[in-house]
Design a protein that fits this description.
The structure holds two protein chains of two kinds.
Chain A lengths: L1 H21 L19 E6 L2 H19 L2 E6 L2 H10 L8 E5 L2 H7 L22 E3 L4 E16 L22 E4 L6 H11 L8 H9 L2 E5 L2 H10 L4 E5 H9 L4 E4 L6 E9 L6 H11 L2 H11 L12 H5 L17 H20 L2
Helix pairs in contact in A: 2-9, 2-10, 5-6, 6-12
Chain B lengths: L2 H30 L10 H7 L2 H34 L4 H12 L6 H12 L4 H8 L13 H25 L3 H9 L4 H12 L1 H17 L2 H7 L6 H10 L4 H26 L2 H7 L1
Helix pairs in contact in B: 1-13, 2-13, 3-7, 3-10, 5-7, 5-11, 7-10, 7-11, 8-9, 9-14, 10-13, 12-13
The chains are: A alpha/beta, B mainly alpha.
Chain lengths: 361, 280
Amino acid sequence: MKKIHVYLILFTAVLIVLSGCGKPIQPNNEASGAKTDVKNDEISIAIFGGDWGGAIKKHIIQPFEQETGIKVNIIEGNSTTTFSRLLQEKSSPTIDIALMDSGISELSNDESVVETIDKSKLKENNSLLPEAFNGSEEKAYGVALGYWGLGIVYNKDVIKNPPQSWKDFWNDEYKGKLTVPTPATTGGLPLLMKISEIEGNAKGAVDKGLDKMKELDVVAYFDGSGAATNLYQSGEASVGAHYGGPTYVMKEQGLPLEFVIPEEGVLGAGSFWHVVKGTEKVEQVYSFLNYATSKSAQEGIANDLYLAPIHKDVDLDEKILERMPFGKDGSIQDLNMPDYNLINEHREEWNNLWNREIIGG
Amino acid sequence: MSKKTVLLLLAPSVLILLGFFVLPLIVVLNNSIMDETGSITFHHYLQYFKDSHYLSITWKSIKISLLATFITLLIGYFIAYFTTRYIKSKKLKRVAYIVIISPLFTSAVVRSFGWMVILGNNGFINNTLLALGIISEPIKLLYTETGIIIGLVYILAPFMILSITTVLENIDSRLEEAASDLGLGPFQTFLKVTLPLTVPGILAGSVMVFSLAISAYVTPAMLSGGKVQLIATVIYEQMMQVFNYQFGSAVAFAVLIFSFLIIGLNHYLLRSDWVEEGRR
């Protein structure tokens, strides 16, 4: 019996160690590095997990691997974990291409961890919308996977008066049933900025918006798309903000949810591919970007994730068109794109204010 | 065995210890005392210690961890006592151990998610109580400090149970028999003999549970719904959201020192005469 206990304790000790190793971003071991690996038939690409990862693998990575014979090492994470890793590996990157959302995309350019995109190397350059690139006309640093946005969601079985505007969140009917994003997720600071603007704050100030947000009776805040989906799925929240794509995925599963484009417009964002500074596989990287911007990949991503495509010639069904973040007849220009550079300037400050004013000590 | 052989045999484990435990800690320490230009500064520590916001979050985290440890101890002791003393068959005992450690086989994400289903306004507890007419409004359990404590207790209980079980198993039952021969009732025997003898197990279990609780990120992050901030979430946010590695590292290191102090104090208190009394 005593022996069993020794084993049990050893076993738990091992478990503690393992659980300690499990959570944080995996260090270099899972990706064969750009520096250490001399083989040229492999590239490392950081993408997102979940539905997005699945769709990207299916519509971009698999055809790319099959047709070029180049193997892709996939590193799953969200924009911030990927960016964090790029920062720490500045001198010797192990990622060649990184997918990051608006906000973090601009930040990665500010921190010089990504290269300028050489548009002449993109086969489909002439068929791409101007919004296909993040950055300025001369210096683009991101190539869009697609555009999406934060809008309003409600459960039509619970909510009698559907919200039409961000301002409606303060309706008495929604008390205790509402959820809005924290600054941790892409839509968080844009929403705070929007509310501040509605409340009469000048650009770059959020004090009135914070005061207004404090009055909201939320059931919980969400720090990412997955958390928001959980809240609506479990019925804990029945009205609030959410991204369009995941809402339509839930609707497709039979949940009584509706997505509303607020009067003020959907708060837009994009996900962009970045060429990591210091990659030695420029040729393979651009070959991949050509697959990512191809008509078929863009159609596949739009059909599966309801992302607004950046290829001019994509052909989408009526049903998919209705689910675009700007509605059926709109275009990417109709999205209410926040000034992500301004957000980045205030990122730490606003985050800090949110923690102090909204959550408290 | 010569000294040399002993050293040689020890080398691998010492190296692993240095590589996996000491080195990352040094990296964190190094990060915390560097400014952007690379010179040494204590600015980030001052920023932390001067700010009542962070100090109150730290205090709240310590409070929640201590509470979770205490509740885990009560529940864990009861379960450990029951399995060692009342389950006689060896086979059943093995089954009991497997049941106790089985939660550890799934990730904290899945287990926390389970609690979200149970504790929510539309969750199992509230729905049951509402159906029975005991309450008319759902009780707020999820997205509160209470919810976080419940989640932590559940996730950390196996560590406490196992360390107490080990000690309980090894108590010489003749000591307890002697106590009752000498006229002590069952409760007094427990209080004066059994309990003091299990202090090493309580100590080990508490240290494990407390340190896991104060450093837990996944459970509080999921069960707080962004409404409760703990020190682990602050550190995560500094590292992963605002990318202030220096400040994040300083907070992490300061909390490590707080934890050491509390664990040391606990050690000192439980090593007092009380333990000795059990041995007499």
